[in-house]
Fold:
Amino acid sequence: MLVMAVVMFAAISRSTSSTAAIGILFIPFAILPYGLGFFIFGCCLPDLLAWVRGKSAALSVWAKLRALVAIVLPVWGAAEVVRGVLLTQTVNRIVTMDAPGLEQFLETSLFKENRFALGSLALNPNATTALLERVAQMPDPALHRKMGSLWPVMPGNGKGLAVMRLVAMHKNVSESVLVMLSKSPDNYVLGDVLANPKTPASILRQSAGHQDTLIQYGLAGNPATPAEMLQKLAGSKDEYTRARVAGNLGTPVETLEVLSADNEWHVRRNVATNKNTPPTILEKLAQDPDERVSPETRRKAKAAAKRIEANP
Structure:
């Protein structure tokens, strides 16, 4: 149980998720099944030793079953360790493979349908559009869900993002794959699809008026989202959606002006850092009472004023 506690703590430490530390609270409960397994093995071990010493004739049926359990448990444990080591080696090779190597992996590897291995493929910048499409067509529902493991099998994916989220965010993903992923049952995947500028406008418009914050957040960050949708998203109850609209280069000036008076400082800050925010709004934000908003804005307002003076 102590060994597993250390392993779990190490797994939590590898995560870059902002809520990962909460997992430390659950370590005492998570290690109990492992403790139970070793307890059962310890109880069954004397019967196995008696069998090995040639006393099997004197053992009852139940004692023989216990001896069998004492064999199966360590064999199963050793098999899991070997599998974990092989998978760890595989995923660390995949992230540096070239395109032909990735194709060969999908054809021949024992882990070609493993979500951790596929996650490494989706993180590899050499993954081609065709390879990403093959992954997106896989029917396994687990590929749409968040990942987590005690083994270090998520290099470059500290937050454990689902495979399909990684595919949706890949630079080589095609419009057809994004359309395919727009039917995902997971809203995290849908949010990333809607945030991708390659996603067709028809898919974006289908999500107009959706109340889920993940959907809204994705739309709010897409520069290809139609202006009228961004205007509506600027009125979202979710402050992070409004903040993303405020930083979107496709947001109309009139919407930026509305958001410059938002109650949340980080929304106003995003308006101030938006390259398309006009000097008149910057001048107003330069007087913002929250210093987290005003210093950068003052600098930008002064720079804008100098440009206007130089080119009246």
